[in-house]
Each structure stands twice: as structure tokens, then as C-alpha cells.
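Lecture 7 notes: from sequence to structure.
We start with the chain below.
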Amino acid sequence: MQDTRRTRLVLGVLLIAALAMITISYRDGSSSPLSSLSSFGASVFGPIENITGDVTRPAAQLADGVKGAPSANAKISALQQENARLRAELSAAQLSKSEESQLKGLLSLASRGGYRVVAANVIATGPGYEDTVTLDAGSLDGVRPNQTVLNGNGLVGRVVSVSSVTSTVMLASDASSVVGARMAGTGEIGAVTGTGKGLTGLRLQLFDATAVLQPGQQLVTFGSVGGSPYVPGVPIGTITRLESSPGALTKVALVRPFVDFTSLGVVGVVIVSPRTNPRDSVLPPPPKPTPTPTVTVTKTASPGLGQQPATPTPGRTG
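Predicted C-alpha cells for the same chain:
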């Protein structure tokens, strides 16, 4: 469009007309002849404005969120820490009511053996035929795979897998579990294996076929190099019965474990091995043998030949 005198005249007329219509509409309000035109414009452009607002509003909210992200992350972190603190307090309150004695027993055994442990609760059992349990302690607590797990009575098993907040323990009763063992007193060594899910006994196989075994003897862990997966001196169990195998090169016995694998609660994961081997010092005192009752037989004099035993005579009444 060329800037000519005619063009300027037309623009001036249109500008004056527009100002006149605005003035009339302002003075007359809703009764203005231009109100219908205004309503038409609103009906046409209103939906477009709404759609534009719906499209631009999330972008505006995202921009506000980005601006406030640091403070929001700080609030979330504070809430997570508070939640963790409350969960710890709740767990401690529950522990003080139902599992305090188990914790005391664990700490007592760990102290006598020189084991540094992380206490944990058993929160789940493994599926299928595996003898495993899940603990509520993980890598954030210092737990690593192939660490010894025990409780106040003795050996529970070893850690096989770890997440940040949980860990899985294979029990000593699992059929695939093999633990190096040492006889208390004699020092004979062998291997203790599990008997499988649902069976609470263990099986001992001594390496020396000439070793003397008898019921009542106790076993402790022999220990692994570097204390992984088993630290030394942890009580395992007591021999209950010998299995005879003619011609066998080793001796086999059944062992009753000190730990009840069916009722595990508070356990400890050994994160630092003892400086010295505790050997037999952590074992419970052996049970005293039950005395055999004696039966006294009283002999009575037998009647002489041809004599009859005396028959009591009933008393007379009357």
C-alpha cells in the first residue's frame, strides 16, 4: 500500500468512526446498538481464548515449578527424613514390647564372641523350597553378601543378596547350605549341611573316620578365610544321633541346631569379624545328664517245703 494523500484520508475517517463507536458504546452500556456486535465477537473469540489458556496454562505452571524446584526438593527431602525417623521410632517401640529379650540375647552373644553386628528384623520368608528369610537391613546399614547371620542362640545362616534397605539370608537348614564345623573340646573338623525346607535338623560329616563321636557333643563354626561367609566360634548345635555306614570313609551324625529356624525374629549380621577366634567360649553350658532312677527290689522269704503260706483269719464280730 502506497502512502498517498487518499490513503491518509481514508485512515483518518476510519479512526474517527472507531472513536465515535467506542464513545457511543461506553455511554449507552448494554443498550448500545453495538452491544450485539460485542456479544458476537465474544462468542466467536471466547472459545479461542479458552483453548489458548488451556494450552499455555501447563507451560506456565511448569515454569513456576522449575523456579520453585529447589525449595520443593528440600521439602520432599525433609519429609522423607521425618518419615524415616518416625518409622525407626515405631520399630523401636514394637521391638521393646515383643522382641526385647531376643535383642538382649543377640547382644550378649555378640559381646562374648567379639562380633560387631547390625541388628535386623526378619520381615519375610522365602518362597518355594528354599530356606531363606528377608531382613529389614541392607547396604545402607553396612550389610554385604557372604556375611554371617546369627541370633542370641547361634548360627542362623549367611547373606546371599543385598539391596539398599533389605537383604536375603540363606538359612543353615537349607539343603544347599554347607558350613565348616569344629567339635568343641576335641577340635575335630567337618561339614554341617542342611536337610531342606520343613526339616529342622542338620547333618554333620566328620573328615576323620577314626574320630570319636557321641550324642551330646557340641559344634561351632570353624570359620572362613577373612571371616566370609562364616566367622569362627558361632554355636551350631548338639549331636543327637550317630548314623552307621559300614565301610564309609567318614562319620555322619544328626545335629539338633541351637537356633529355631521356624521362629526367627531379631537377628544380627556380622559386619566385623572378631580379632581372635573365640573357639568354644560362646557355647551354652552343656545340659546335665538326667540321672537314671534306681529300682530297689525287696526279697521276701519263701515258705518252707510242704508248708502253705499263712492265711489271715478274719476277726470275730458280735
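Points to note: The longest strand covers residues 116-125. The first helix runs from residue 5 to 28.
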